[in-house]
Amino acid sequence: MLRPPAATAPGNSPTTPGTAGVERAAWTFYLIAALGSSIGQIWVGTDLPPWPDTLPLWTRALLVAPFALVIDLGGAVASAFADTRRRLGETATGWRLLSAASVTLAVGINVAGHADSPYLATVFAGLGTFAYSVWLLHTAARRRDALRAAGKLRNTPPAYGILQWKHAPTLTWRARTLAVHHGYGLTESLTLARRQLATEKRQKALAAHIEARIRARHHHDPILASIAATTTPIEEITQHLIDLSDARTWALAINAEIQPPPLAGTPRITGRRPDPTQKGRDVGPITDEGYPPDERRDHAGRGNQSHDEPEHGFDMPTELARMLPRHPATCRRWQGWWAEISGRPEATNKQLATEFATSVRTVQRIRAVGAAGLLDSPSRSPHRRRPGSG
After folding, report:
1. Among 38, 114, 154, 263, which residue's CB has the most CB atoms within a 10 Å radius?
2. Residue spans with biased composition (Basic and acidic residues) (predicted)?
């Protein structure tokens, strides 16, 4: 059974490994600066009030010290209460104002009490301001760590660098957003952002064409065209159209168009015809004439009979020939699947792969081979041996 993460106490925050020394240094600097500010107030308290001349200096200091410490440390105490309430989601405005007022009083006492000595006024007032600033920054950092550990504060983004922001500000901003919301690293966020921007650009261009197509169907009535374009979920159509696109089939079609022409007088080998009726048997290389060397004589004797009954697959690219299964049972299964796929052009490859309990790549191959007419029926199989070929 899963357990929720342990809650962090309001007064505590998780310590990141390696920051213990920084924590101790912050506390040390704060205590020294606060002590210096308190000494300045004690100095003022022993000189300015009308003390009796018979009262020793050390007695005056002992009497003034508690009040000076309360004034100086009151800002830190009030700030600590404010920090506790802010970790719980409150604004703690009253505690924060009280803290600022206490520190302002301490600094004012040092400035006014040492007005005759600008050096002492600057030193003691500066120490008080420095101590309070260190306290605020330290507690704010601990509060952010605690909120982040509790899931109440977003992640910090990676440092992408000035050059990255300069050369690709849009990409970097998208990567930063992904890193903040999903916790991605530097390289992963940039890669995903680049992919998202490219997809959005493609979808935007495709959506414009789809809208133009919808409007063209009602060109006779501009108002009706606007209604159709506005009410149609173009974004959903765009994504569905992208899902239906078969990249491998397009690649095969383009590859077939860019093949170099064969040399004059040299038959071009385009592939081998596997025979599904005999497992593991190759019929032979397929040449430009469309038949293996041992079948050319039979083909020539039939004259123009081949033109009356075209055979699929003899001039197909080598890639399509290699996609055809060699086993007869697999071939029949592909034909059955193709019969169902051809009747459902709207189904995506992923949906069909799930229904057939096969891979998406297999569905893509079936669509590529079936679109070429090679799986229409068993009698039209590209692997069928021609009559008289033995």
Report:
1. 38
2. 272-282, 293-314
